[in-house]
Each structure stands twice: as C-alpha cells, then as structure tokens.
Specification:
64% helix, 7 helices, DNA-binding, homodimer, mainly alpha
Chain lengths: 171, 171
DNA sequence: TTGGAAAGTCAACAAGGCTGACATAAACTG
DNA sequence: CAGTTTATGTCAGCCTTGTTGACTTTCCAA
C-alpha cells in the first residue's frame, strides 16, 4: 500500500498516533467544549436584551463587510432568507442596521451598521476577543497557527472560500 | 512593566502580531465556519430521523462514559434537566438508551447505550471522525497539538476539567 | 425520622431553525 | 416589448431545543 500523498504527511510511518480514534474523539470533544466557551461571553451580554446569537452573527458580518447584500449574508450564514429576514427586520426597526437600496442594482439592499449597531458590535466582539486573546496568548503563536490550520481544514470548501476571501482577496 | 509571565509567552517583544484585533477576528470566524463543518455530517444523518443535535450529544457522552448518571450528563452538556429529560425520554422509549436504577444509590439512573444506540452512535461519530481525521491528516501533528492547546485555553475552567478528566483521570 | 438531594413530570413559553406560497420590483433575454 | 429570472420581503405554520416554575416521588444520610 505504500505511503500515500506525502505532500502533507511528511511524517507517514513515523507517528500517526495523532490519528487514532481516541485522539479524534478528543478533538471532537475539544471542539464541543471550546465552542461553548467561545459563545458564552457574547451570549451573556445578549441575554439581557431582545437579541440572540443570530443577531450577533448578522451584526458581526455586516460590521466585517459594510455594504454587504442580503444574498451575501445568506451565503455566509447558511440560513434561509426567512430566518435571516426576521433577524434583520428587528435590527433595522431598532435602528442598529441601515438597509440602503443599491445604486447599480436597485433590487439589492446594502447593509450597514448604524452608530448604535456599531456600539453593540463592539461590546459583543470585545467580549469574544477578550477570551480569544487570552487563549491565543496562553497558547503562543505556533499553537495559534496550528489552530487555524486545523480549523481551515475542517471547513466545507465553500465556507473556506468565504473565510479566506476576507484578508486574502479584495480591497 | 517588564515581561509578564514568561512561561507561555517566551516571545514577548518579538511578535505579538498574532494578537492583533484583526488576527483575533480571523480566529473568531475560523471557529464559526469550522464549527459549521464540524456539525454538518452528523446533522445530515440525523435530519432523516426523528433526532437532532441534542440527541447526538447525549448519545456521544453516554457512549464515552457508560453508566454515567443523569446529573453527570447535565453537568457536561450544560442544559436544564427538563431539556435533557425530553431527549433521554425519546431515546429510552425508542430503545437506544437503557436507564438502570442505581444499585448503591437507587435515586440515580445509570445510562447505557443499547445495541441499537451503539449503532447510531457509531454512524454519527464515524461521519464526524472522518472529517476530523481528514483535517488532522492535512494539518499534521504539530498543527493538531496547537489546535488542541488553543481550544483548551478557550474553555471555561469547569468544562476544561470535564474535558481533561477523560484520559487524564479515572479508569 | 426528617431534611434535602436526585430524579422525573407537566405546562408554558421563546429563539431560531425550517418549508411553502406568494408579492414586488428590477434586471436580463430573446 | 414580452417573458423570465433574480433579489428581496412577507405571511403562515411547523420543529427542535433551549428556558422557567411548580410539583411529586424516592430514598440517602444525619
């Protein structure tokens, strides 16, 4: 059967112990428990408000890409337009998000955070970054690089494209 | 203010660039997109059945620790007993989980997977491990070590205890 | 023997997914 | 120009999975 790909696995015979079912189970549980921590802080802020995790996600990605369209958001978030619309409607009604009709294509709505929306985004991401920063600092840059490498490899190809497009590509 | 801890951050002045807000935002999005991939495969299997992610989680942890009590599960899963009970009830009714009254403490219920439950667990974790294995293999052992280090650092202390207790401790 | 922990149950509710059907405006195509 | 496709919004209804609150039963342990 020989060695297979060789490109990524320059270790081959050496130590594939990190691929045992037990190690994979550990990885699975690590994801589960870490994701709980990952969402805990913003959730705590939101539980006193009329918003939830879905609103957080929308606000995050609007902040990341101001002027993004509804369709873009749908692709990134992976929910139905009905689900997203329910969230966006409340955010627009409450004045956290502004929805501008497109200039080139008037069917499109371009989404922007208002001042108030930006403030909430900041509060939420501050909380989340705080934990991430502590984890990154404790783990060190090499561990962080590995963390990102594995997570990227775990994404669906379509989502990986979305993820990499942020810094990799456009202005 | 000098160098701080030194233990983990032997890099100090050198390159703290991995702690910029932009890098942290990347880490946050990596978690978001990767978690989507992480849950996608089991979800796909479950959508044809009468079960959801909550059932998967229960089945996973019962399989990991056969004979665990309801209270143990509650601590690990971090949901209310009413939520968990609804899930467990259907699993018991459908013959995937067996609930045995404790011998020492008859108030406790010890949970075990039946043959059928084990089969479903295997199908679900096979799917999940398949993706994790591909990601681990593509990333390599050093990246995997970093991945785990960062995730551990991101957990709430209580959950980290739970996580580490698996291989670290009891028989 | 009694207090309290563990477990279970009922009811009601909310968030946030989903599908299906339909409306409107704008853009595109032949 | 007519017809089709696209982008968006909306109504209605359903499901899963989380929540709180109230209450009961069992039974260990002081």
């Amino acid at each position: 059967m020989s060695e297979r790909g060789a490109a990524n696995t320059a270790f081959s015979g050496e130590s594939l112990l990190f691929l045992t079912d037990e190690q994979l189970r550990r990885g699975i549980e690590a994801m589960f428990f870490a994701y709980r921590g990952f969402t805990a802080d913003p959730d705590k802020i939101l539980q006193n408000q009329a918003y939830g995790r879905a609103h957080h996600r929308a606000i995050h990605f609007i902040n990341r890409s101001p002027g993004t369209t509804v369709n873009n958001l749908l692709a990134i978030l992976g929910v139905t337009k009905q689900s997203l619309n329910r969230v966006l409607r409340t955010l627009v009604e409450d004045g956290l998000v502004e929805s501008r009709v497109g200039t080139r294509d008037k069917r499109e709505r371009h989404l922007y955070l208002t001042e108030e929306g930006t403030a909430l985004e900041r509060a939420l991401s501050d909380a989340q970054r705080h934990r991430m920063r502590a984890a990154f600092r404790a783990a060190g840059p090499e561990a962080v690089a590995g963390f990102r490498t594995v997570l990227e490899a775990m994404m669906d190809p379509e989502l990986r494209r979305q993820y990499l497009a942020t810094t990799g590509g456009e202005p």
